[in-house]
Amino acid sequence: MEVGLLLNSNNRLCPYSERYKEILDENNIHFKLIDPNSYTLFDELQSCSHLLFHHTQGDTDMLIYESLFYIAQNVFNIKCYPNFETYWSYENKIKEYYLLKSHGFPIIDSQVFWNNNHAYNFLNETEFPIIAKLSKGASSSNVVILNSFGEGKKIIDQVFNDGVKVRGLQNRSNLTSISNVGYFNYGKATLKSILLKLNLIKEKIEYPEWQIQKDSILFQKYLPNNTFDTRITIIGDRAFAFRRFVRENDFRASGSGKIDVNPDKIDIRCIEIAFSVSKKLNFNTMAYDFIYDEEKEPWINEISYCFVDSAVQSCPGHWDEKLNWHKGQCWPQKCQLEDFLELNI
Predict the structure, then answer these.
(1) pTM score above 0.85
(2) Over the range 91-107, which residues count as b (16 or more CB within 10 Å of their CB) and which as e?
(3) What is the CATH number of domain 109-221?
């Protein structure tokens, strides 16, 4: 067995993959680092029986893995992780919605538009508030709530004209109003915006290689009165779960960092749905975010195969497919390696 750890676009392992490396080292499993910039890339790949990769949120990482996955799996007969089904929808909310909706799974009702006139027509006929999302965006970025046609028109004009770079989808109704953030934070944000426009300061761009997002938008039904979402992470036949509470003066839980890992507070229906989706769609790993409608029925908000590993590790145990509880903490990378390599680590 020879495991290849494919480096990310910055020519390093991301922190998540570093733990793969630690676990492989601890268990004396031989591996090599695969440099996508190497002149001998194909020679290095051909010597591997397994290829392991973990995306960051940058566009280049997706391009690297997409470019090599087919070659590794179908030309060199290398077992690859994640599989195609798992990574195909990563960081693309439109793909997520199309995939789950087409299979009849309970994904929150949404409308996707590829044309600004159709988007305007939808806003003229819809009831507010609604949620607007771009296909890419982590930790609640590029997700805003719209309370009027005017707010929606500004978003549509931004998306279908110049497009949006990184965390650029903005709307005053969300976090920037005085009533939400207070006078001090409002003034601070306003001053920063002015200085940026005058090029007197430069804003740090988290993922400078992100491409501009334009010419597509997703409008999602707003489900009110959700003070938390339920994150279910399925790894093989294991379900890890915790609740994430929304940030102050916000409707979004992703990125809040406020979690509750008490298993008694987890809605078992969410676990059952997550298991059924992962099994049907052949996901190696997938995290599901659930919120409730007015009848307290759980709906999938978003999915992602990448997630914060320490949050999963903090869970006191996990459920199996028969909903039996297994006590004990575990790093998700260990579970993934056991499944991928078919070893008891």
Answers:
(1) yes
(2) bbbbebbbbbbeeebbb
(3) 3.30.1490.20
